[in-house]
Amino acid sequence: xxxxxxxxxxxxxxxxxxxxxxGGVVIEGARGLGGHSDADAVCxxxxxxxxxxxxLGDLGRHFPDTDPVWEGANSVGxxxxxxxxxxxxxxxxxxxxxxxxxxxxxxxxxxxAMIDTLSAVLGAPVSVKATRAEGLxxxxxxxxxxxxxxxxxxxx
Length: 156
Fold this sequence. Notes:
156 residues, alpha+beta, four-stranded mixed β-sheet, two-stranded antiparallel ribbon, 6 strands
């Protein structure tokens, strides 16, 4: 068994037309996050957790934000590739747990869709929860969104 943890944070984009994507789900009417890819903090944290569990570094090592190939990349696709990389190392996902930290927007209406999307990619149960920073710091001022993820892998 292997366990991995991932953390990702993005500030909100200045582009009013950029969609907010979390856990592979578009959050309607919300300001998007800034980043080289689609800036999906949930997929990024989960990807880092999987990579860490199998000792393959982090997302930036495999999909650097300096490479134009990954500009605007769909993070569900990146997570899919990371899960494949873990399988190539002889590991499959048992389960994962993600906590999104965001004072805005309200995410409860979207968490089940995130769970469904991420569980399908990992081939294992995924939990997604949202919490607020209660006005503390940059996240509490709604300047961005963070996600913490943990994953359990087993040898295949």
